[in-house]
Design goal:
- The protein is of the alpha+beta class.
- The chain is built from two helices and seven strands.
- It has helices spanning 63-74, 96-108, and strands at residues 7-9, 12-14, 47-57, 77-82, 88-94, 115-127, 135-137.
- The strands form two sheets. It has a five-stranded mixed beta sheet, with helices on one face.
- Belongs to the acylphosphatase family.
- It is an enzyme of class 3 (hydrolase).
- It holds the Pfam family Acylphosphatase.
């Protein structure tokens, strides 16, 4: 692990990280250095959070798995869960750009076998800090 003030990226220490970017959410950050979701600061637009519910043929088609994979790919944090009435719900957090990218993916892409009829986003707001350290599937 890098000394205080350093940043590990794919196991390599970076000691020349600007102070405002020197914070990382894990002992070994696997995100590209500048794409680490914890590296964003309020001065760069802050963090955003949005709740979502996806309607259509979204259960039994690996929608949660693909959602988790996509979120991890773009460095979003939050969660996804099936509901008892056939929808998928969750929350996504990250920079404004990350949240918008995830919203578009949830609304228009999903898993290969899914059919998205409607995506409802609610409670979208700027937050002072991320409430999750990763993205996971809840059961």
């Amino acid at each position: 692990m890098a000394e205080l003030g350093g940043h590990l990226v794919n196991g390599e220490a970076y000691e020349d990280v600007p102070a405002e970017l020197a914070f990382c959410h894990s002992a070994v950050c696997t995100h590209p250095h500048m794409a680490c979701p914890q590296s964003h600061t309020m001065s760069s637009g802050g963090f955003w959070s949005v709740d979502y519910e996806i309607y259509g043929d979204v259960q039994g088609v690996f929608f949660r798995k693909y959602t988790e994979d996509q979120a991890k790919r773009i460095a979003a944090v939050g969660w996804v869960k099936n509901t008892a009435y056939g929808t998928v719900v969750g929350q996504v957090q990250g920079s404004k750009e990350i949240v918008e990218t995830m919203k578009q993916w949830l609304k228009n892409v999903g898993s290969p076998m899914s059919r998205i009829d409607k995506a409802v986003f609610s409670n979208e707001k700027q937050i002072s800090a991320l409430e999750y350290s990763n993205f996971k599937t809840k059961y």
